[in-house]
Amino acid sequence: MSKxxxxxxxxxxxxxxxxxxxxxxxILCQAQLRIDHRWSDGxxxxxxxxIENDFVNGWNxxxxxxxxxxxxxxxxxxxxxxxxxxxAFTNNHSENIELLSGxxxxxxxxxxxxxxxxxxxxxxFNDKFILTxxxxxxxxxxxxDYALVLSNSLLFYEAQRSGKLPSDNRIKWRGDSMLxxxxxxxxxxxxxxxDAGDHVKFGFPMASFTTILTWGAIEYEDAYRxxxxxxxxxxxxxxxxxxFIKAHVSEFEFYGQVGDGHDDHIHWSRPEDWTKPRPAYKLxxxxxxxxLIAETxxxxxxxxxxxxxxxxxxxxxxxxxxxxxYDFANRFRxxxxxxxxxxxDFYNSxxxxxxxxxxSAAWLLRATDDQRYQEDIEQHYDEFHLAxxxxxxxxxxxxxxxxxLMAKITNKQTYRTQAEHFCHYVVHQAPTTPKxxxxxxxxxxxxxxxxxxxxxxxxAEININxxxxxxxxxxxxxxxxxxxxxxxxxxxxENYPKRPHHVSSSCPDRPTICDWNAYxxxxxxxxxxxxxxxxxxxxxxxxxxxxDDFIKxxxxxxxxxxxxxxxxGLLHYQFKSSE
Length: 579
Known about the structure:
Blueprint: H1 3-15, E1 17-21, E2 31-39, E3 42-50, E4 60-65, E5 70-74, E6 77-82, E7 86-90, E8 104-112, E9 120-125, E10 128-129, E11 133-136, H2 146-159, E12 201-202, H3 203-219, H4 221-226, H5 230-247, E13 254-258, H6 261-264, E14 280-283, H7 290-307, H8 312-331, H9 336-339, H10 354-368, H11 371-384, H12 399-410, H13 413-429, H14 445-461, H15 466-483, H16 503-506, H17 516-520, H18 557-578
Helix pairs in contact: 2-18, 3-5, 3-7, 3-18, 5-7, 7-8, 7-10, 8-10, 10-11, 10-12, 12-13, 13-14, 14-15, 14-18, 15-18
């Protein structure tokens, strides 16, 4: 037996969940083999194979063992059996099989008559080996496949990209879009993310989700690395930060939005089909926007930490823009909703800009250890009463995040007490649905629960009621993934949403026209928006999978950020427990 094969078999026996890599293609390096259950003379396992290219001609999987076994599989039809050692399976030809790029084939099999896992020799998918280089993923101690949901969430972010897409784009039903996005003097403003089901690039929530996503990647880099998603999360974050750098056209000029929300919402069509120029909204000393600018500074400062070791030049560039934008926001203060009136019906600033000034200063303190930011934070605390107990953590209100981030940076009891007060409210006092979801707000209820869970996971990281908060966090995530009786993540689990309020995924394949007929169609969205978290249920756990319900069934980039970061955190704890 070869040394590499022996290592594979040993790690599979020890951990029961592996990342199966190949040398012939990048995407199959994400294939996952998980042992679901063992007994004295057999085991049940799941092979999750990522699909690189759309195909409708079915699939085949070949399993080879070192000795005769009995095997049961689903889905699939056995079409070849050689001495009960070599098995070939294909899809049932009576089924209408269509596997789309960016999705997964979930192939389950039960092996009987052997107890030793080293009898599994090779696996191939569509006649290509996917069992060569192996690395551990997880001990599979969770009820749900957090690693799979994590990777799917990153596919959702790729589906939200605006601009010219890279050659390795994994969402094949998306194409280049909004290539005419320009500033007042022709500045290139392509790139960035569409906010939700629409095609506007709202800068405030884009910066907010980027900060939260980056925070999770910083804290739980091991989880991203061990699930094969580290490069993908870096790419997701850089898609934002590259755009922010473009939008920061001079020291005190920043484009905070591209696209008119009201104009956008009267159209129901693909972003690829949009042909007319879009307005760009610039913030200046005369038209300030402290919330948006400070949040962008926070995102860039956080990203500078993430990229520090892998790209020092980019780290320095991010930090330069972060410092300048913080100074811009702090020196020329003003509510961004006044400078970009279009935003008031979409992302109005309700909490003011004081929380973002403190938040961005905290991220700069963490990124630079420059004590002037500590002094600024103390001033912002006093001026804007940031020691108060918040009731949520969202794109609008960063107070709770600031308190917990400062507890982590300084370990001062003042901040630790504030962090504990927030989580005590969330865990013990906030309303909950009958099935156990903490219900902080009706619009995007799952987003609010996920964000709160992420902050309490951060509190647990610094030894504040660790066991208690981990239990709460796990309960919230498991509610989303299926404990409520259904999954709220598209493409995962039982009865997941199929009609999200999301324009581009509701459109048929190009070149078929997409218009309001797609909106009113009773059928599932033709394109699978894999990994997207929908808004969620009401206070009584009620939810309907309706495209016209933008409160419960829209998806947005900020919904997934805290949710994905919690998934990474729970995987991190699984890895720790298995070491």
